[in-house]
Amino acid sequence: MLSIKSLDEIVIMKEAGKILSLIRKELLKFLKVGISTFDLDMIAFDLMKKNGVISAFKGYQGFGGYICISVNEAVVHGLPSKTRILKLGDIVTLDIGIKHKGYCVDSAWTYSLGSVSNKIKQFIENTKKSLFLGIEQVKPGNKISDISRVIGKFGNKNNYGIMEIFSGHGIGKKSHEEPYIFNFDFVL
């Protein structure tokens, strides 16, 4: 069931979003060649403690990390590991979710370590573009499928494979709430 947030809830979630942004910016200082994804996860945990929030991911459906760190071929929800050492040319997605005053927020951002091919740079830029194309569809009179359609159309136009088993999602008291926003055109 879709949960419409009150103004008070929105204020709390905005606070949480600002805290998450600070954590991400601090964590980026450590995103370097030679660090393990486990060490990045522990740094994220320390930053969460320092900012008075907890991980929305740790223990969620058995997940063992405080954040998700997906490297190269890992599509989403990469589990931190002591043996996964970041190297030059890696593509790293940091997916950070926190709980603040009973409400969850999360965001995922993708970075490259050092120089990568133009094809990879374009891929990272295009995924960001597809997000903003979807956001442009969030307006009165539009449906969730309008968001999905524009994202899927952009992905197909650029010859990207669409992972149909994953979706964007709402947030609130839970990490995953309605609406679920798929990355492909569908009809309900």
UniProtKB/TrEMBL annotation:
Entry protein name: Methionine aminopeptidase
Enzyme category, top tier: hydrolase
SUPFAM superfamilies: Creatinase/aminopeptidase
Keyword NADP belongs to the record: no
Function (record text): Removes the N-terminal methionine from nascent proteins. The N-terminal methionine is often cleaved when the second residue in the primary sequence is small and uncharged (Met-Ala-, Cys, Gly, Pro, Ser, Thr, or Val). Requires deformylation of the N(alpha)-formylated initiator methionine before it can be hydrolyzed.
Family: Belongs to the peptidase M24A family.
NCBIfam families: met_pdase_I
Named cofactor requirement(s): Co(2+); Zn(2+); Mn(2+); Fe(2+)
Co-factor binding comment: Binds 2 divalent metal cations per subunit. Has a high-affinity and a low affinity metal-binding site. The true nature of the physiological cofactor is under debate. The enzyme is active with cobalt, zinc, manganese or divalent iron ions.
Species this chain originates from: 'Alnus glutinosa' phytoplasma
Classification via InterPro entries: Creatinase/aminopeptidase-like (IPR036005), Pept_M24 (IPR000994), Pept_M24_MAP (IPR001714), Pept_M24A_MAP1 (IPR002467)
Superkingdom of the organism of origin: Bacteria
MF terms in GO: initiator methionyl aminopeptidase activity; metal ion binding; metalloaminopeptidase activity
Catalytic activity, EC: 3.4.11.18
Catalytic activities: Release of N-terminal amino acids, preferentially methionine, from peptides and arylamides
Residue stretches making up the Peptidase M24 domain: 13-182
Gene Ontology process terms (BP): proteolysis
Keyword terms: Aminopeptidase, Hydrolase, Metal-binding, Protease
The keyword Thylakoid is annotated on this UniProt entry: no
One Gene Ontology term, aspect cellular component: cytosol
